[in-house]
Amino acid sequence: MTDERKDRPRDAKQELAALEAAARPTFWGFLGCELVAAEEGRAAIALQVRPEHLNLAGIVHGGVLASLLDNAMGLVAILACPGDKTVTSGLNVHYLASSSEGLLTCEAALVFRSRRTLTLEGRITDNKGELLVWGSGTFRRVT
């Protein structure tokens, strides 16, 4: 049996829309991530802060920020290795400032690629452009 999707040409916009639709029922959608832009080696996603994203201090929970960073960098890894499964093998997160409302944007970029691993960096900013988080991650191709 052949995969008809491989036989039909699709443009990058369609591929990204399909990827985002597939991610909606996963943790990506549960968290509230939205695709902003993506191209080879780069991606940007956004998250509208909701009350469930806050910790008891009333600021966005560090786990939410780490997940946003991981999702953006993971998207870049997926796009860099089409057809392969990639997993996060390391994530470094530096919390620089806090936020409690508004739209957060995470931009991620591929820094280095070897045969089996990818190294990325990411930045999360608030709706005023203030840098909240800087991080790096390594991803491993498992297939």
TrEMBL record:
Q: Which organism is it from?
A: Paenibacillus lycopersici
Q: Which NCBIfam families match?
A: unchar_dom_1
Give the UniProt keywords, A-Z: Hydrolase
Top-level lineage group: Bacteria
A Pfam family annotated for this UniProt entry = 4HBT
Ranges of residues in domain Thioesterase: 58-131
Q: Which CDD domains match?
A: PaaI_thioesterase
State the protein's name.
PaaI family thioesterase
Output the InterPro entries linked to this UniProt entry.
Acyl-CoA_thioesterase_PaaI, HotDog_dom_sf, PAAI_dom, Thioestr_dom
GO MF entries: acyl-CoA hydrolase activity
